[in-house]
């Protein structure tokens, strides 16, 4: 907040070159590539209506020209065919089930953006979970501070927190919070620069410092061989290790860990029983990622993934021809959420993530991913039931209306009765859809 003075800004990139513009482009491209679902009812209706009209005309022609009946009898039979075959039940089969399904989801805090997402979810075979904020709570804490080169823990935190003060990353917040809790005074920095997927660099006075993952040290040709064993030990416990160095040597290690959300292992186990493969995607190194994934019950891991690479991993899984879902909460997850066949966003995340997702979990509970899949399966089951009864009703009703039983029983279906039967079929479809409310989503 600048109340009195003035600030001069220089925009390094503008318009289509900005990071936000690139993310928006990725989202739009992914959304544009999605093929719309062809509904079964549309395909049936394309053939059903002309066939019924043909049967109705044929019924009139048969009874009037070959059946020995008068004009009135033939016309009544033809009208009965049209009335009983009215595809109201067929038209109601899908929208009623989807309406009840999305309403039921909303009651459980699962917001589904339309019928397409609801229909697609039951076909999912792969689900990719972002780590921070999705599998974990997203509020990491500092667990270990290991100083080298005659530094103290407080000195290490003071330098790291001073540098991270300008960063918005969750790991940065954890370090700054630790400094505040221990009343450690921060120093003024300059030349701050964030290096995506690796860390940050900044100056305190004339001294340059680097703070990030081991890859950042290697990039700046600072050897870590002497500390490799300590780093591996911390990473094997599922902790994210950050290395603080100056331009020449390593000053120390700071390990940060996040708490796993309740119910994650159970959710992964249930998804496995449903025949769905689960994956975790993270920028952490492979050792840390595998340790966290093992606790979560996930066997497939995409580690050391840069923000812009997440959508590429979704595309690779989609290349197998199977449906893929992405679960995330951050702005960097937005392109992957849009690229996925079903993007599932946590409501605690960013606005762009929720906008990109086709499903939003209001309770931020990973178990709701399982409930969304079950809800989709239940809804699709109801749609298929509705389709079956609507079609069977017409298959059996049309011949009766056309007078197939008349030569044997002398009974001809009245258009009035046919109208009642047609209305009853529509009511039965609606009632069957409403029964979806009685299903559980455990």
Q: What is this structure's SSE topology?
A:
Elements: H1 19-32, H2 40-66, H3 71-84, H4 88-107, E1 110-112, H5 115-121, E2 124-130, H6 131-135, E3 141-147, H7 153-164, H8 170-181, E4 190-195, E5 199-204, E6 207-212, H9 214-219, H10 228-236, E7 240-246, E8 250-257, H11 264-273, E9 277-281, H12 286-296, E10 300-302, H13 310-318, E11 323-328, H14 334-339, E12 342-346, H15 351-356, E13 359-361, H16 367-401, H17 406-409, H18 415-434
Parallel strand pairs: 2-9, 2-11, 9-10, 11-12, 12-13
Antiparallel strand pairs: 1-13, 3-8, 4-5, 5-6, 6-7, 7-8
What descriptors fit this protein?
442 residues, alpha/beta, Rossmann fold, Calcium-transporting ATPase, cytoplasmic domain N, 7-stranded mixed sheet, 6-stranded antiparallel sheet, 18 helices, 13 strands, elongated
What does this structure look like?
- The structure is a single chain.
- Among the domains are: 124-137 and 261-369, 3-Layer(aba) Sandwich (Rossmann fold), CATH 3.40.50; 141-257, Calcium-transporting ATPase, cytoplasmic domain N, CATH 3.40.1110.
- It contains 18 helices and 13 strands.
- It has helices at 19-32, 40-66, 71-84, 88-107, 115-121, 131-135, 153-164, 170-181, 214-219, 228-236, 264-273, 286-296, 310-318, 334-339, 351-356, 367-401, 406-409, 415-434; strands spanning 110-112, 124-130, 141-147, 190-195, 199-204, 207-212, 240-246, 250-257, 277-281, 300-302, 323-328, 342-346, 359-361.
- The strands form 2 sheets. Strands 1-13-12-11-2-9-10 form a 7-stranded mixed β-sheet, with helices on both faces.
- Helix 2 (40-66) runs antiparallel to helix 3 (71-84) and helix 3 (71-84) runs parallel beside helix 18 (415-434).
- Mean pLDDT is 84; it is low at 30-38.
